[in-house]
Structures are given as C-alpha cells and as structure tokens.
Specification:
This protein is about 15% helix and about 40% strand. The protein is mainly beta. A hairpin with an 8-residue loop joins strand 7 and strand 8. It is extended and about 95 Å long.
C-alpha cells in the first residue's frame, strides 16, 4: 500500500510539471461561448435593421414586402388589384436611445400578419398621420419590452423607485411685519382634468373666413421742391367674407359663397371740381353649388354678380363715368367644377367649365351712355347666351406670403369678356401687410381711347401698405 501511494504522488507531480511547461492552446472555434447580457439597445436596433439578406431583395434591389407573397399565392395575377400604397416608416422617438426605465409589463397589441390595413394609406390622406404615429408607438413598445426581457441586468432604473421631481416654492414679502413667507406651489390637476372632460367639441358644418384691410399711401412735397409735384393721399379699403360647407363632413357637396367689396380713394389736387377721385369701387358676389360626380369633379351651378356703388366722374368735369348698377353684371352658368387641395393645404385649385351660360348687363343711370357697356341706346339691359370658365387659385408661397388668382372668361361666340385678378399679400405681422393687386381685363365691346394705345385690353395695378385683420373658424 505504501508503494502504491508513492506511485500516485509521483504521477501527480509529473502531470503538474508537464502542465506548467505546456504552452497555451487556442480553444476550439466550434465551441460557442454565450456572452453575458451586456448588449445595448442601440446594438439591438442596428441588428434588427440589417437582418435581411440578398434573398429578401427583388431584381431592382428593393426590399420585398411581407405581403407580396401573400398576394401572389392567394390572388389571380390577371385580376389582381392595384398594388397597395404603404405608409412611410416614421423614425423611432429619441427617448428610445436614453437609459431604459422599467415601468410595467403590458400586453402589446399585435397586428395580424394577413391584415395590411394598418400599414397602407388611408382613403383620406389627412388621416395617414394617425396610422404612422400608431405604427411608431407599436414599434417602440415592442422593442422596449423585448430589450427589457432579454437584458434584465441592463435595466437599472425602475419608475417606482426613482426620486420625485423637485418641489416649487414662492416667496412673499410683508413690509408691515418685515417678514418673508415661503410657500410650496401645489398644482391641483383635478379641475383641469374635469374641465377637459367636459369640453364640448361642436361639429362645424359651415366654415367662415373674414378678411378686412385698410391700406394707404401718402406724399408731401414742399412748394419749393426743385422737381415740383403735388401732395397726395391714397387709401384703399377692402372687406371679404367667405362661407363654405365643410367637406370633411359633406364630401359629396360643394357649397361656397364669397361677398367682397373694395373701394379706393385718391386726393386730386389737379382737379378743380373734385377733391378726390375714386380709383376702385366694386361690390362682387360669387356662389357655387356642386354635387360630386367622380373623383374631384362635381356637377355645378355658378353665379356671379358685381356692380359699382359710388358715382365716379371724369377729371375737371361733372360727367359721370360709372354709378350704382351702371354697369351691373349678372352671370349664371351650368357645368362642372374641378376641386383640388394638396395634403399640406398650401395650394388649392377650383376650375369651373360652364358650356351653358347666361350673362345680363345692366345700366340704369340715364346720365351715362349705354354704348360704353355694350347696351343698345334706349335699353337698360342686354342678355347674352354662351359659355364661361372660371379658375381660382390660392397658394401659400411662404409663411407670410400668399398669392390668390381668379380668371373669369365669358363669350357668346361674338362678344368676349375676361377678368384676371391677381393679389400678392405680404404679411409683416398679424395686423400689418403690404399688398400688390393687378387686374387685367379684356372687353371686345370697349371703344378705343383717344390719344392712347389702349383698346380692348385694360389694366389696373395697386401697391399698398396698411392694416389687416383676418378671422377664420379653423
């Protein structure tokens, strides 16, 4: 027995000596050593974004949708519907890259893999943002919960053990007692919650927009000014009221009415009879009724009425140029209207074509020659049947620059009349603005003006600065 024990001791010593002299050998690469759970959330996102291979790409190098195979297997390609328009993927919230805080374990709502509806565009583009935000919130919850379950040791914070936010205090000084009182500010949220819960959100079927402006220009020139000249004051006022049916609740109808009045006055130092001249005087009403036909096209009836309200005289005479209902114009048209508004609501277009149109011209003042307005002598009205077209554009070029345009054409295939109004508005702030108004008119009945080249074409341009006030229901 003693001999056996001695042999065991010698063998153990030999093995130890050999082990001490044996160099280090690399471990077998086939042996998988699972690393500790120290991955960060950002690494998990990077892995998740790079999991697809070349088999997941189509011939154009684009990622194959999860629903492509479903459509190919279940639908006949000859009668397959149009490809689905998928929503863009919104970036994950920045809070995702902050340290993870455990709040609670919740059941995450899932989407059926055979239901693409949450990921495709909505029938109305204005509702797409709701789906995009819902998809982003779902991705955030799934990624956060997956990380917390797979990396428990890295979730160091718990919302229930974190310190409370610091308190706020206010100090008041009492001079009579020479004391300072410090009190804690306590915000009672119950009244705010109760008020929000009782808020009555009324449905607005009619949308109103009111625009009022008062703008002017002035010049003073001393009597000894080396170039000469005359003092002058120019002013222009306008009021516009637009009412239309809310198409969000009534998408099959177009009902819109616009009432507008513009008046411009200018001092007339060179006029020996009149102290001022009228540079602009127009009352106008436009109305549209439409019933949806297809897409953005509507069967429509359009109406337009305009006249002057004040008397306007030629310089240095008492001869009238225009007066109330002289001229007055009424136009009615039946046809179709195209209505378009871009998703960002910065551009809108309304185009109407009326193959059947009636135009009535009125001149009631006996002191003005009727031939100036295409009316036969001895008559106060004239009727014309033909066609008309109207195009209206509203375009927000910048946050403080808007452009509006209205083009109206009428013809009875012998007489032609056209008005093209353009308005550029530059808002300085809520109450001040600069406006450029350009009105081009064509009238084939207009008589040529002596000593000028103006015949059928007419032009009016006004640049003004002044006050503005706008009010809209939305």
């Amino acid at each position: 027995m003693k001999i056996l024990a001695i042999i065991v001791v010698l063998v153990s010593a030999a093995v130890s000596a050999v082990s001490a002299q044996t160099p280090y050998i690399e471990p077998d690469s086939s042996i998988v050593v699972r690393p500790t759970s120290d991955r960060k959330l950002i690494e998990l996102i990077e892995d998740e974004e790079s999991t697809f291979t070349e088999e997941d790409l189509d011939e154009n190098g684009e990622l194959i949708s999860a629903f492509d195979d479903m459509w190919a297997d279940t639908l006949d390609t000859a009668s397959a519907p149009e490809p689905l328009k998928f929503l863009p993927v919104a970036p994950l919230p920045s809070i995702l890259f902050m340290p993870v805080v455990y709040d609670e374990f919740v059941h995450i709502d899932s989407v059926s893999p055979f239901d693409p509806e949450p990921f495709v565009e909505a029938p109305y583009a204005d509702l797409d943002w709701i789906k995009i935000e819902a998809n982003r919130a779902r991705r955030y919850r799934e990624l956060k919960q997956r990380y917390m379950l797979d990396n428990i040791r890295d979730v160091r914070y718990n919302i229930y053990t974190m310190p409370k936010p610091p308190k706020k205090y206010t100090a008041t000084v009492d001079p009579s007692t020479e004391s300072i009182t410090v009190k804690e500010i306590i915000t009672d949220k119950k009244p705010l919650v109760a008020e929000a819960a009782n808020t009555d959100v009324a449905r607005k079927n009619w949308l109103h927009a009111v625009d009022g402006r008062l703008q002017f220009s002035q010049a003073y020139i001393s009597p000894n000014w080396y170039q000469g000249g005359n003092n002058n004051v120019n002013g222009i006022g306008s009021f516009k009221w637009n009412v239309k049916l809310n198409q969000k609740f009534h998408p099959k109808f177009i009902v819109e009415a616009t009432t507008e009045y513009k008046v411009g006055l200018a001092s007339a130092p060179q006029d020996s009879i009149h102290a001022y001249n009228i540079t602009q005087d127009q009352f106008q009403f436009n109305g549209t009724l439409g019933l949806k036909a297809i897409d953005r096209w509507y069967y429509s009836v359009n109406a337009q009425f305009k006249t002057q309200l004040l008397n306007n005289y030629k310089p240095n005479t008492r001869e009238l140029k225009a007066a109330f209902m002289t001229p007055g114009e009424l136009n009615l048209g039946v046809g179709m209207t195209y209505n378009y508004k871009n998703p960002k609501r910065k551009f809108s277009l309304d185009a109407s074509i009326s193959p059947f149109s009636y135009n009535l011209k009125i001149a009631t003042n006996p002191g003005i020659p009727k031939k100036n307005f295409g009316i036969e002598p001895g008559h106060h009205t004239t009727s014309e049947f033909g066609s008309n077209a109207e195009v209206k554009i509203n375009w927000t070029l910048a946050w403080n620059v808007t452009y509006s345009s209205r083009l109206f054409l009428f013809t009875d295939y012998d007489y032609t009349q056209g008005d093209w109004e353009n308005t550029f508005n530059f808002s300085i702030n809520r109450y001040f603005s600069t406006q450029l108004y350009i009105h081009v008119r064509y009238d084939s009945h207009q008589l040529p003006l002596e000593d000028t080249n103006w015949h059928h074409w007419q032009l009016k341009e006004i640049l003004s600065f002044g006050f503005q006030y706008q009010f809209k229901t939305i």
